Structure formats: C-alpha cells, structure tokens
Amino acid sequence: MTRATAYQQFRDRLLSGELQPGQFVTQKELAQLAGVPIGTAREAIQKLEHEALLKVHPQRGIQVADVTTKFIREAFGLREALEVQGVRNFASGDFGIEIDMLLAATRDVLEDARANPTADTLERAVEVDWDMHDRIIGSLNNDLLNETYQINATRLRLIKVSNRFSPDRALTALAEHLDILELCKAQEAEGAAKALSHHIHTAMTRALQGQ
C-alpha cells in the first residue's frame, strides 16, 4: 500500500468518527487501524501532521487534532479568505452553466429533503452543499490555492464530525446557498461575496456552539 493510500485510509477514519478529535493513539494502533505497515503509516502521519490534522507528542503518542475554539476560528477564517475571493470570480466570470446546474441540484435536494428527510437524502444534501464550495474554488483555476482549500475542507469536515448533526441545519445552509447562487447568476459579485461571508460566519457560530 502506498503512502497516498494510507493517507486516505487515515483521513477516512478521522471523518467517520472512528478517531475522535483530541484522541491519543500510538503509531502501531494507527497502522493497524488503516491496515498498513508501520513504515507506510509513518509517512502518512507526517503528511497529516503537516496539515494540522494530527500532532505527534514525544513520549505521549499521536493526537488527533482537537477541535478547539482556536481550531474552529482558524479553519473558518481560512475558508472565508479563500471562498470570498473565489465567489467574486465565480459571479463575474463565464460560469452560467455551472451556476444553473448548482441551482437546479440545490432546489431538487431541498425539495426532497423537506418532503422525505431520510439519511440518504440528507447525505445527498451534504454532497450538493460541498459541490458549490468546491466549484467556487475551482473557478479560480489555481492548483496551489485548491490544494490549500482541500486540506482545510478536511479540517471543516472534522469539525462537523465533532458536533451534533442537525437536518435542519443542513437544509438552512442549502437555502442560503440558493441566495448566494442567485446573486452569482445575476453577476452581483459583491452581493454574492457578502452573502457567502455571512453564510460562513453563521456556520462558524454554530460550530462554536457545538451545533
């Protein structure tokens, strides 16, 4: 198994809740959990530590990133810095087809989730939620910026794992997405930037409150 595969295994364990924020584990335990040799695990651990998802403490073991107030504020602060820049570009550029596609997908999943809020429907709602954010960043066509965004997206997902999942929260977030996308469709770049900034601050406040 390659380091990249081991990294993905560890990341999946983090986001599944098998590894809890702040939990201490040994290198051997991590290797066994991912089903990889110690050497491969060590390389993946180094990458995860570089991304601030793990912290290696000499004599104490390896700690999963703890979702502290500082961690939450920094992750959402970075998200705002990246995505507000991105949404201005998304709103003012030639992205009409993508915007229409996102609007249609968001409306469809909102209608389904409100009528029949099953686990599968809510999972699709989360996927549609992330798709908008991913496409906003993708519109910048900047590989380094996208890499930073993807690393931070994992931190944001870890924050969500540590908080209680609320179907109402997911639906409210998607309703806010519709407002942002309508502003993008109208090419109101500053309006879209303000709406997205408000959306991110609302999400951060909920995360800080453990919601």
TrEMBL record:
<keyword id="KW-0238">DNA-binding</keyword>
<protein>
    <submittedName>
        <fullName>GntR family transcriptional regulator</fullName>
    </submittedName>
</protein>
<dbReference type="InterPro" id="IPR008920">
    <property type="entry name" value="TF_FadR/GntR_C"/>
</dbReference>
<dbReference type="Pfam" id="PF00392">
    <property type="entry name" value="GntR"/>
</dbReference>
<dbReference type="InterPro" id="IPR011711">
    <property type="entry name" value="GntR_C"/>
</dbReference>
<dbReference type="InterPro" id="IPR000524">
    <property type="entry name" value="Tscrpt_reg_HTH_GntR"/>
</dbReference>
<dbReference type="GO" id="GO:0003700">
    <property type="term" value="F:DNA-binding transcription factor activity"/>
</dbReference>
<dbReference type="InterPro" id="IPR036388">
    <property type="entry name" value="WH-like_DNA-bd_sf"/>
</dbReference>
<feature type="domain" description="HTH gntR-type">
    <location>
        <begin position="1"/>
        <end position="67"/>
    </location>
</feature>
<keyword id="KW-0805">Transcription regulation</keyword>
<dbReference type="GO" id="GO:0003677">
    <property type="term" value="F:DNA binding"/>
</dbReference>
<dbReference type="InterPro" id="IPR036390">
    <property type="entry name" value="WH_DNA-bd_sf"/>
</dbReference>
<keyword id="KW-0804">Transcription</keyword>
<dbReference type="Pfam" id="PF07729">
    <property type="entry name" value="FCD"/>
</dbReference>
